[in-house]
Design brief:
The complex is a heterodimer.
Chain A (H helix, E strand, L loop, with lengths): L9 H10 L3 E2 L5 E3 L1 H7 L9 E3 L5 E4 L4 H11 L5 E10 L8 E10 L4 H19 L5 E7 H10 L4 H10 L3 H12 L9 H8 L2 H14 L10 H16 L4 H11 L2 E3 H15 L4 H16 L7 E4 L12 E7 L5 E7 L3 H4 L8 E7 H9 L1
Parallel strand pairs in A: 1-5, 7-9
Antiparallel strand pairs in A: 2-4, 3-4, 5-6, 6-12, 7-10, 8-9, 10-11, 11-12
Helix pairs in contact in A: 4-13, 5-6, 6-7, 9-10, 12-13
Chain B lengths: L2 E6 L2 H13 L4 E3 L7 E4 L2 E9 L1 H10 L4 E5 H7 L3 H4 E6 L5 E8 L8 H15 L3 E5 L2 H11 L5 E5 L7 H4 L4 E6 L3 H5 L2 E12 L1 E6 L8 H12 L2
Parallel strand pairs in B: 1-4, 1-5, 8-9, 8-10
Antiparallel strand pairs in B: 2-3, 3-4, 5-12, 6-12, 7-10, 7-11
Chain lengths: 371, 231
């Protein structure tokens, strides 16, 4: 369906996608809103265009393609690996720029050669943009959720803090807040005397107490948080508050988060960091190195890619690679991508389906072409 | 230009607002009979009173179709995007006090702060296969507070237009964001307010729509001064 407001390079883009073996998939503009809100969080609500069907179902104008493409894949129950591509309009309420604009991209679903698939996604995004912006140097920023998680785990921080940090990865302000609180933990006080006694005792009695109270006060013990869940977290929280945190762990975490260097030097720097800090990051570093090697095999210029340790997306379905492509010296993101191995099962796929992909901002590419 | 002031059309709010205007030397009389939805201020021919429901008042302020309104701050902040750009709180009137708060079941012994709630929300889907559900009629305030102030993203809002306090016990939501004045309804439903979960301390306010026409209009300042003087 050719639309007259499509970017003039749309046809070339589709040829590029086809040449890369991607199958074009179309998804309706009007989508059920729940999957987007479930995956991205309530904050998305004010940035999408919501409406309601006659029967009260919450619908929205397609705010992006990854979730619809994954849903379509799950529905059609085809095998993997699959390489899908899309090109179409998306709708978002933005402060800057139009509310409707074109995006195009590729999603690799079910490719089990992780490093190679990651490298291919980065390389495809860079090559396609380079083809559209000949002669203009590009810059790539790359981050890795898996490396950050490995560092947090290896530092031996209490479980609750690990979760908070991993959850916040990519959100600098929130990470800083957490580090601040980690540096000066707050003791937990103010329990009623009878509860304080229970807390000193065994967990079974505590669970029993919570269970009884819930029943007496008319709360279902299985509709929301269960007595066991509350008791376990309460114990965890108390032990957390008593833990004296090691100052060096915090310093190491800050040191790690400040790493920013050309990708070609990143593996060695990460290995050096792990050695000096006495941390074992073997699995995550091996994956990282493998990806760097795969990128080098594809002939991409590693000095153009910057690894930034703190770069991530605070969405819980991102699991490894994240990257952005910009014009060198310019902040506008022309392509964004990453690995989202957790998304398909969250959307209802029966088995784990590893996934990586990228999305091109065609309006920004169009602007960059005009300059 | 006639200045339009929107006042609550019924109940305690109407009486309390009328009393303050009276003390401020702006006595309000209904046009026609007592139940009329229009009024005027004795001695001020260029002021018109429109009696509206409290939530309509916030909307009309947002549209700029009235110049002033007396309504709860909660309704203005919930009803208007970028509220501070579109209105100014000219005076806090000292009645209609109520807080918009985050309340969780009392039995959530491990949850005493928004940070605790953030932890629970982060884990919720893995444990329960769905997001933490918040029953509220305050969509905007909830989003601003959870996402903006506390970095909590992983929750879903369940719209609730009445008896919100009952939602956690009935299982239709896990926690609530609601307005409370004495806290007794929360207590009766075995809910507790999180100490750092007070989103807004609301009360009835004299709200001015930010309108170009107000600049240089001395009556605007005089009305505000008169009301402030009566508090």
């Amino acid at each position: 369906m050719p639309l007259i407001n499509m970017p003039d390079f749309a046809a070339k883009l589709l040829d590029d996608f086809a040449a890369r073996g991607a199958l074009r998939i179309d998804t309706p503009v009007i989508q059920p809103a729940a999957p987007f809100l479930d995956m991205a969080g309530e904050d998305l609500r004010r940035r999408i265009f919501l409406t309601e069907s006659e029967t009260g179902e919450s619908l929205c104008l397609r705010p992006e393609f990854t979730i619809p493409v994954c849903l379509r894949h799950i529905e059609s129950a085809t095998g993997t690996p699959r390489r899908y591509c899309y090109l179409g309009e998306v709708f978002r309420q933005r402060r800057d720029g139009e509310n409707e604009f074109y995006q195009a991209g590729i999603e690799d679903l079910g490719e089990t050669a992780i490093a190679a698939a990651d490298a291919r996604a980065v390389n495809d995004a860079v090559q396609i943009i380079a083809g559209l912006l000949p002669g203009r140097p590009l810059a790539v920023t790359l981050g890795d959720q898996a490396v950050f998680e490995a560092v947090v785990r290896a530092l031996g921080l209490p479980g609750g803090w690990q979760k908070r940090l991993i959850q916040a990865f990519g959100n600098t302000a929130q990470i800083e807040q957490i580090l601040l609180r980690l540096a000066s933990p707050q003791p937990v006080t103010g329990f009623a005397p009878d509860l304080a006694t229970l807390l000193g005792g065994d967990e079974a009695a505590l669970i029993e107490h919570i269970d009884r109270t819930m029943q007496e006060t008319g709360y279902s013990t299985n509709a929301s948080r269960s007595p066991r869940e509350i008791a376990t977290r309460l114990k965890e929280k108390l032990s957390l508050a008593e833990t004296r945190l090691d100052g060096t762990a915090l310093l190491l975490l800050c040191e790690f988060l400040s790493l920013e260097l050309p990708l070609g030097e990143a593996s060695a720097a990460l290995a050096g960091f792990a050695d000096a800090a006495g941390l074992s990051l073997k699995g995550a570093l091996a994956g990282f190195e493998e990806r760097v090697a795969a990128l080098a095999d594809l002939g991409i210029d590693l000095s153009r890619i910057t690894y930034r340790a703190a770069f991530g997306r605070p969405l819980d379905y991102y699991t490894g690679l994240v990257f952005e492509v910009t014009r060198a010296g310019d902040g506008a993101v022309l392509a964004g991508g990453g690995r989202f191995d957790r998304l398909l099962t969250l959307l209802g796929a029966r088995e784990d389906i590893p996934a990586v992909g990228f999305s091109l901002w065609l309006d920004r590419i169009e602007q960059a072409r005009a300059r | 230009m006639t200045i339009t002031i929107a006042l609550p059309s019924k109940g305690r709010m109407k009486e309390d607002a009328a009393a303050i205007f009276e003390r401020a030397g702006l006595p309000i009389v209904a046009v026609g009979n007592e139940r009329s939805y229009r009024g005027r201020v004795e001695g001020w021919d260029d002021i018109e009173i429109a009696f509206l429901s409290a939530s309509e008042i916030s909307r009309e302020i947002g549209n700029g179709s009235v110049d002033f309104g007396v309504t709860g701050e909660d309704l203005v902040r919930e009803g208007l995007a970028e509220a501070d750009r579109r209105m100014e709180i000219a005076a806090r009137l000292g009645f209609g006090h109520a807080d918009v708060v985050v309340a969780v079941p009392e039995i959530w012994l491990d949850v005493d702060s928004m940070a605790d709630l953030g932890d629970v929300a982060a884990d919720f889907r893995a444990r329960h296969g769905r997001r933490l559900a918040i029953a509220t009629k305050y969509w905007r305030l909830t989003q601003q507070f959870f996402s903006g102030s506390h970095g909590i993203q992983l929750y879903r809002i369940v719209e609730s237009l009445g008896a919100t306090e009952g939602a956690p016990a009935s299982g239709s939501a896990d926690i609530i964001v609601d307005i409370t004045s004495t806290g007794s309804t929360l207590k009766a439903n075995h809910l507790k307010v999180l100490p750092d979960g007070v989103i807004l301390k609301s009360e009835a306010c004299l709200v001015r729509a930010r309108k170009q026409a107000h600049e240089g209009d001395q009556r605007i300042g005089r009305i505000i001064e008169a009301i402030r003087g009566a508090l």
